Amino acid sequence: MTKLVPNLTAHWDETDSYTIAGYQRHGGYSAVKKSFELGPDAVIAEVKESGLRGRGGAGFPTGMKWGFVPQGDGKPHYLVVNADESEPGACKDIPLMMANPHSLVEGVIIAAYAIRANQAFIYIRGETPHPIRRVRQAVADAYAAKLLGKNILGSGFDLEVVVHSGAGAYICGEETALLDSLEGRRGQPRLKPPFPAVAGLYASPTVVNNVETIASVPAIINNGAAWYKSFGTEKSPGIKLFAVSGDVKRPGIFEAPLGITMRELIDYAGGMVSERPVKFFVPGGSSVPLLTPEHLDVPLTYEDMAAHGTMLGTGTPMVFDTSRSVTQAVVRWIEFYKHESCGKCTPCREGTYFMVDILKRLEKGKGQISDLDLLVDISAQISGRSFCALGDAAATPVPAALKYFREEFETKLVGVK
Amino acid sequence: MAITETTKSELRELISRYPEPRSALLPMLHLVQSVEGYVTQEGIDVCAQEVGLTTAEVSAVASFYTMFKRYPVGKHHVGVCVNSLCALKGGDSIWRRITNELGIGHDETSADGQITLERIECQAACTHAPVMTVNWEFMDDMDEAKAVTLISNLRSNKEVKSTRGPKVRTFKDVSRTIAGFDDGLVDEPGIDEAMLAGLKAAKQAGS
Q1: pLDDT for res B207
Q2: Domain count, chain B
Q3: What is the span of the domain harbouring residue B59?
Q4: Do B80 and B155 fall within a single domain?
Q5: Which of A86, A126, A354, B81 can pair with B131 through a Cys bridge, CB separation 3.0 to 4.6 Å?
Q6: Measured between CB atoms, does B186 come within 8 Å of chain A?
Q7: Has residue A42 got a pLDDT over 70?
Q8: How many CA atoms lie within 13 A of A74 on its CB side?
Q9: B183 near A CB under 8 A
Q10: Does residue B186 fall inside a structural domain?
């Protein structure tokens, strides 16, 4: 049985875990000092060496992303934290900001120092007032402790941090849409290249990182890349927050090495409610294809998920038991993408509408057999032809659901039942 | 109601936080909602003046984001998550029940002006499904009975507390918090059993 490794969550059971006193009691902000001793290039090298990969869903190597920022270019650099957690199933960054916001602030200082940014933004989802309060207070307390502002700890490094609220648009989790939104525009994605590392916020070099990614940095600096790599696999090193939801007895946040299995996580979550077995689960938010009971022992790593036709995504599995309808789940996911499509490109804007119409027809028992092929065809037309990853995400639930549960869709056709 | 000089100076304070004025637009529109109860035409005009944009440009931004309302919102904004997981775990039945109780549907306000109802998308609280929100504060692990009590308490101005957050205030009050002005409520409890499930399991297993 893979052991849980509470790292970011280690002190959440202390009543002041979210305060600067609570954080510093356990060595909080010591990694800032250590980073200043190492120097920015050595910090980037350490994070590269740790193998830390982006925890927002794409899994891009973090140190490499930081390394893309051109140095000595005379332009201001920006660090932007993507705290716009809105993916159906994803519920790890919001709790992290509620319970341990200082790990994020400390990570921001180190990351900004590494990429030579003197201005950082934490773009938090607008619909989450309590995490906003906690992060705002954490930033204010860090300023008061001279950990932010001018000449931090006598290092000569200056950093200003702004906590920014979004206004309810899932698309702003896409990094270029987030940047447009942070510039006060409609949150629509930009054409890449240029990538944000070259031309991001205000057309300057910008790194956009997920909350959990940034919050993981202080422990890597303190304990070293070798420590971090001692967890997980070669291609998926380290520790991750797994938020397990759905038909388990004790849904919650479980921090474990990558490579833990769904069966183990369900075990830690107290097993299934009502002892009904798993029917399907979605390993990493609604944007990744679902899996079935035969995949319960597949390690939850980037590479193993890819080998089984899905993705680790945000690492926040939703578990559904045999009492649940896969078609009902799928129609709501597609309705979500339809609602959140920004309208910029045709395949995503129109395709999600077509799919919702067809899925609703099926739900009413009025579907034709050709509708099933049409759904697969529309998904294929959206995937890879949309402007950004939201379209690709919208195209994932249906083909996977049809692959494993075609009979269930067929019960929804005209004349059946 | 009108945008006063006090509000204008607060709008300018928001602008001063950013390297480029336009970046403050989303927080500014939240602040307009906190004063007016929704994004009024006057609010759009003032934001446009302060940032140096046309009203069309500000309207285009305001209409893009779901949280910005172009019509008056009730004293409380109540959300019911109807995304897949919440819907299947009871969100759909909660929605049916309270729309019946209130006699209103999505994006509608009760006749007494107390409640505006919205079918909302995933709130990043799936471990607490089914989820509702009151003025965007978490109301976790709901069921039909709890939802009915919640609605009745809100309508009769009884005290309601968020499961992970403070006592419920009003839509306007919380819009001000979201805009980026402190409200002194940061220490209200925000951690619960689900957030500690892994830590507890790890301690039990001795890891």
Answers
A1: 56
A2: 2
A3: 5-64
A4: yes
A5: B81
A6: yes
A7: yes
A8: 0
A9: yes
A10: no
Q: B51 and B80: one domain?
A: no
DSSP at A159: B
Q: What is the pTM of this model?
A: 0.98
Q: How far is B99 from chain A (nearest CA, A)?
A: 19
CB contact at 8 A, A55 and A315: yes
The CATH number linked to B33 is 1.10.10.1590
What are the chain B neighbours of A142 within 8 Å (beta carbons)?
Answer: none
Note whether A212 contacts B: Cβ–Cβ < 8 A: no
Domains and CATH numbers, chain A: 20-229 (3.40.50.11540), 239-321 (3.10.20.600), 326-410 (1.20.1440.230)
Segments in chain B forming alpha helices (H): 5-16, 25-36, 41-51, 55-64, 84-86, 92-102, 144-155, 171-179, 193-205
Using a 10 angstrom Cβ sphere, with 0-12 exposed, 13-18 middle and 19 or more buried, the burial of residue B51 is: buried
In this complex, is the C-beta atom of A269 within 8 Å of any C-beta atom belonging to chain B?
yes
Residue B1 pLDDT class (50, 70, 90 cuts): low
Of B88, B179, B198, the CB nearest to A324: B88
Mean pLDDT computed over A284-288: 95
User: pLDDT tens digits, residue range B68-113?
Assistant: 999 999 999 999 999 999 999 999 999 999 999 999 999 999 999 9
Task: Decide if B136 and A164 are in contact by the 8 Å CB cutoff.
Answer: no
User: ipTM value of the model?
Assistant: 0.98
How does pLDDT run across B151-180, given as a tens digit for each residue?
999 999 999 999 999 999 999 999 999 999
Does A164 contact chain B (CB < 8 Å)?
yes
Q: Does B23 touch chain A (CB under 8 A)?
A: yes
* CA–CA separation, A106 and A137 (whole Å): 14
Nearest to A253 among B22, B122, B198 (CB): B198
